[in-house]
Amino acid sequence: MAANTDDLLRLWEDNQRAHPVQRALQALALAAPVAGGQAWAQAPIGARDRALLRLHEEMFGGELHTTAHCPGCGERLESDFRVGDIVAGSNDGPASALRLQDQDFDVEYRLPTSEDLLQLAAERADAGDEAMRLLRRCVRSALRGGVAVDPGALPEAVIDRIADGMATQDPDADVQVGLACPACGAAWSLRFDIVSHFWSELDDWAQRMLADVHQLASAYGWSERDILALSATRRQAYLEMVAA
Ligand SMILES: [Zn+2]
């Protein structure tokens, strides 16, 4: 990974108020600048999330942790899993062109990207149903019997098949983790959101880093820049001496 401690702290600092999708894109821009030759904003959501999972693995390890309440009995349970357990896809290239031919309908569409999500988020709250607005962005052409139709006028069954096609082509856009309750035996699956998970880990890491700087600066009078330039091993060794 190209990013150093100072870069990561700046990422954390500069994106405090940013949209979660923007935070993810900024983190990837720092650590893994391009996806198959293009910006991450134009990569399919699942490809972006796989890259974020890899970055998580590099920075914080491959163990992921989630807590949930059982829908059966309300028991709070914690579950650990690994990045490799939840990743299904492998295509990191550009959002490819997809096509659905169903009876007399012929629809060309592409996978949703981070850019789409940011655009939707920037639109007015009364702009209409979000799923429909996303569909409009992703449908390149919709024909019925060779005649162009509005994507909003497609029958529900066709729209469902487009959604299925997107899910099949970009399986990691919606990562589900299987959970089972040891207390009552209920089993269910939970959406795992690497975008918010990554940011909360980065936030914890940044807070720890600043606390370390505070301790070493207080003890030795070193500057923040000097402390951040230390390797993690040396920083830890000095922290232990300060605590001894
Ligand atoms: Zn339960």
UniProtKB/TrEMBL annotation:
* InterPro entries recorded: Baseplate_phage_T4-like
Q: Name the domain of life.
A: Bacteria
Pfam family, any one: T4_baseplate
Protein name listed in UniProt = Phage baseplate protein
Native organism: Ramlibacter agri
